[in-house]
């Protein structure tokens, strides 16, 4: 029983290395995971996005802002392959992306949420989030048909992961509630859960705080920061609420009428005359 | 009221996601299975077999199949009759071409062939949605019936254009054709239904089922989060057609014994099965059974009442029956658009909360 | 001109005539779909029901006579009078309006806001109901319908066209049924008047407003229920015309209700919401299936009309999902 | 079932009991916790291994024998393990009320000189770190749930997993050391230190020895024939002695399973799932459940309501007798059986009481109506009387001798003595060792012969031979005319009425009594909804004239009842008011166990009391409140003061037994 306090302290030093492993390293912003180069998107005669370039770096929270109709949503749809731009290149994790279907892009590790919640209304919270892991599940038709064995084992393995997300988002009490019955704020959270379930390399959030009251917005901000923090997920989000974005984003791109009018840290954006003009111009909005 | 759930808790995910998580339900299910497999075969007679039980079993399989496609995957199909015809004719050709082949194989192979046909007709679903697709599936219905009518090879060049089921046995007991004993056809169909229902439950609770439901609920979002619509839709068409093909084979081989394609597999059958799943409940295995039972029992009951009870001519009874069926369908849709399954769920919820109202 | 060419021409003409009839039925679908988003499967049965009612009224049949006889052991069949065609038609129209009101009161009103498939199923239920009800009311035997339209082949056309063929060719002239011609004329009048109605009357504009945007229509004070009654009444009228034409041609019987199935591929081709689509689609399908049956049918054992229209529409949609007149769909999330 | 006496005496510490249980019940469940959607389970063997691993981790971090380890959090298996793990190191666990505000918690941590703090999550870690400067002895903080703690400085902060790993890395060296400490452990060693919330003043650290806990727990377990197949739901604060004795003491002695709910909000659902066989709750919880039953049944259909009324009336008549095994007619029995099928069974099922074999309530008087309700359903609910200083058990009601107005006979090994002033004294194996660092208080409470003053006034009921408690001894006072003033007695009567949540009666040294009322938001809110009364807040609802009228009616009924008591008829309430805010522990008006701190209430609301006695029709009050996050604010209100009818004793009618 001669183990003293001093010795305990030296033990701490001894375990310093392990400590870093168990406490998680501080947040590091790395190389670009996604680069958009000179993207132009047209619908018939209308140009939704005009020659826009920017990048998203590993581990950062990147915001795309702009007034309504600025091309933010189109941009998100280009990133996840729902729209195919007529011009420009998209580089993802160091490779130029060829023409791909949205579900293939999802498989590459890009997940997203939607501005007008796009949950599967007939399914429970749990099933919705499980569906988010679709890209990670593998068992074939025959195993599924037999269930016992591989299919069940896979199901349970993924259920465990999903339950962690449910716990993380604090939605245990609605686990088995059909999502159609949930209030708006919770639906948004479930949708975030579904996107997280895919363990994405890049998470796209389309107006995650739209239509929320102040309290719900605060909750959502906390979850976004926590996701970025706990899982180190790279996040790109669209918002038209400037205030919130400036608080949580590392860097911000500003679009207006399909063109990029600003790109930089929140502070830089705040002082960008073009951005100020654009926002003043729509201040009645 | 009957539920005693205190202490009925789950310590692992396998238990939590089992088909009947409540012990009381589990017991009821075992009891029902015991009655179905061990009691009914002892008391069954030809009337019950031909007018109630076997049609119920066969239509249940078809309803399961259509429910997978329409209820789970959201693709409305009006081609059920045509796909049943594929199953029936496949079974007929297989039975006549390979007399030694075990009837189980025949039935499942027929399902497999129907699945391939179903996938082929499901291809347009990748471009066409909603009612356009529903109407498109009518193409399958009309084309297939026409095909089996016009190409004599399918009915082995018989003069009447009819196909007649040869006798096949399981463990030495005849299960097809007119000479099969009631209990044997019943047990044969029941076994197949049991296996298929179990498979349907398994498919719909896992990855594949969720990909179907995702497509059903919001196809664009489903694709963006990684569901391959091609695989999801075609697998639904395939599995659904497999079930319907099996139903068609049994309908022909065990129930009718002989069939003429335009009569046995017309568009009315397509609607009949659609009614079953709507009244039973879309996206519910139980609903498929409930709907099949309802649609099989109601005409029998009406007929007994009108013809047997009141002594009316059969044609008037038939017209009245049609009127009542139509009115009942509308009534049901108004009262409970989610079908008998939802009614059952609500009742169960009430019983579980008894004596509380919520 | 070679007989083959002339025969083809005849087939095309006949196809056009048939196509007009398809358009007529399809029109009924489109009207209801546009106004209430309901895919009305009962349109065909409505035509049957209208035709049955017309015949029944015309010949003075006692409604529900079979049922009455079965219950009371009586032997009633006819009142013993006959009505002029025009009076009978007007009365039938009245029945169809009452029917429209009942449908709105008893069915549609209770199904507001349900999924399209539920509404669709309800119309199938309605179809079953009307089929049984029509049979109960008027009996299920095949009836002859005669409203005084000329029928039979046109000798004049036969005579004229016989001379067109090359000398010595085995050709007896073109055959076109006068009834078809009349049907085409009536249908054309109907389509034109419906178009005028929807363009230039207040009710018509309200109908279009509802079709474009339910919410907006409600907000400017258009009563949705009235609109439904009107559209169903118009659809009933269209069904009556279709029933009369088809009934005059091949008798009033159950198979009349199957013309609805003929109209479906027309809808796919032309789009559920487009009136010109229904017309052009009908003509394409009419000509297409007749030509196919004429040219390829015999090789396949005939009766290809049963499915050709569907397969044509299917293939067409696969390559052009927006249909004939639809705009390219830009999907949004 | 417990082991033979000889074996029992060898198993005199918790580490020894744990290892014995792991040998005897190796694969039986010891702990369950609802987490991630299912009931995670640990067998006794796993609990032993987990606890030992933690113990080695603690030791690796330098925990020394005799030191104190604070345990802060909700009921969670690993926090229970931490207690035993501390004992493996020879240290003493000090569970702390997790909902305590920083100041209260700081006092306990400082006073107990804790060296380690085991916290459930970020919230608790933050509270500890906030007062770290005042805790010079605190060396390490260990947390269970890592969420949000990543960015914290981890020099003295550790995740539990990390601690286990530290121990594992030096297993060869540490294992013999914990084994040695375990073997050296004695019954007289300190087992745990529990801080009493105390109705007055600062809380005191009650030191209990292994013998205290183990002997009492064993005695009570034998009294109720508890078995290893039993199960309990651990949902009451870990810092409360009852939870320690039930969820640790008896669980270890008997070997039954302890389940922890997912969260406070899901407690009722979890209770239903687990369906415990042994259940404990303070009267407040039974009351809440009953209120909920009543509210939910209000909305039931006519048939159900009729069935419910008919069968509940029958149950009231014969239920308790059937439960006590008294003779009941065959017809009544049949009807009861039918009721069990249709109403009682389903009701117990929905509430989660289907399997309850032994249920206890204690801490305060329970309303006879409430008590009988549960008993009539066939739930074996009993009362016990106890306190922290006695390691819970002083008196217990034996099966078949259960009454609403008494608290039972002395527990195994307990002696009872009633002093001249009516105060109850006891002497038992569970009598605490001392108040930590507070010899004066220890001496005040426990005399040289081991008799402990309970502070409660009571007497032995001559009819049943059971103890009956009237009130806090010091609260039983005199009115101006010298007659007896027992506020608690009246308050408890008031609290049994649905609209009244809390009542505070004043009158010591005065000529008449007045009362403050807190309404029950659940019951009154529901009633308001039913009667289309709109309200935006508690304050608004409390001031509503109809609510006043309702409460007034209740008070008059109590007065009528009190008037019949020859000793206490002077305690009738003459005037009352409904407070504009709920009495709140955060404002110091109540203890953490929700007992009213009478003196503080009296001080804070003095103007109101004066106004009541002055006969004014209304009074203005401004009070400071503390919000959950510690911010302070002010609320002000003008309250209505009302008169109530008082009654003369009716000589012809005997006093109601209840």
TrEMBL record, chain D:
One of its GO terms (molecular function) is ATP binding. It comes from the Bacteria. InterPro entries: AMP-binding_CS (IPR020845), AMP-dep_synth/lig_dom (IPR000873), ANL_N_sf (IPR042099). Residues 18-436 form the AMP-dependent synthetase/ligase domain. Gene3D superfamilies: N-terminal domain of ligase-like. One of its GO terms (cellular component) is membrane. It holds the Pfam family AMP-binding_C_3. Signal peptide: none annotated. Keywords: ATP-binding, Nucleotide-binding. This is Long-chain acyl-CoA synthetase. It comes from Oceanicella actignis. The lineage of its organism: Bacteria, Pseudomonadati, Pseudomonadota, Alphaproteobacteria, Rhodobacterales.
